[in-house]
Amino acid sequence: MARLIFPIILGLGGIVVLLFLGFWQLDRLGWKEGILADINARMTAAPVAIPADPNEADDEYLAVNFAGVPVGDELHVLTSGTARGTGYRAITALQLDDGRRILLDQGLIALEAKDAQRSFAALEGTGNLVWPDDVNSSTPAPDLDKNIWFGRDVEAMAAILETLPIMVILNNATGLDARVAPLPVDSAGVKNDHLNYAITWFLLAIVWAIMTLFLITRILRNKD
């Protein structure tokens, strides 16, 4: 019997730990679903004026309306895997009617249209305030000579286009450049893998239990 104490303790301990991790991921799933519900509520709410001093904690995904004129240069962010295929996100400075100057993500332009003639027509429409997270330590630096970026770095783009570090992703607008296909923001891009993680931990707990039973069976057979 003494020979069974260690495998039993090891088996039960492992199962408890794995089950704990699985239930913890279920708790995280509920937390993330609450966040997604809040995001969807913000995105689908009636658009409001862009706040005087928006911040990420309070205003991420807030639906806003805007009116202004694109000015200055246009920055191109190489983008793939979108509903409209591969191309460049067109990031421009938008001079708002209220005097502020912000970043506007107008949408996707085709690869071959990168250097085509652009429009500076006045825009009036709706969008969402976003603080993109597609730039990290592994993101290549932009090729400024070719005007190709690999992520939406709000601070860096704001410095180049001389705007406030505020970005609106366009939903729809009148006067939109004919080259551009809008890429409205949605919650599909918000990562939520907690259910998959929970299932993985529960399956590992089952495997651990089977291995423990197998080990105990072998010990008993060897004893006989």
Quick summary:
With 224 residues, the chain is α/β, with parallel strands linked by helices. The protein is 38% helix and 26% strand.
Q: Taking Cα atoms only, what radius of gyration do you get, to the nearest Å?
A: 26 Å
Number of helices: 4
**Biggest β-sheet: count, sense, barrel?**
5 strands, mixed, barrel
* Mean pLDDT over all positions: 89
The order of strands across the largest sheet is 2-3-4-6-5
Q: What class would the helix/strand composition place it in? A: alpha/beta
- Global shape: elongated
What does this structure look like?
With 224 residues, this protein is of the alpha/beta class. The protein has helices at 2-44, 56-59, 154-161, 194-223; strands spanning 48-49, 63-82, 85-96, 101-110, 123-129, 167-174. Helices cover 38% and strands 26% of the residues. The protein has a five-stranded mixed beta barrel with strand order 2-3-4-6-5. α2 links the parallel β1 (48-49) and β2. The longest helix has 43 residues, at 2-44. The protein starts with a helix and ends with a helix. The model has no long low-confidence stretch (mean pLDDT 89).
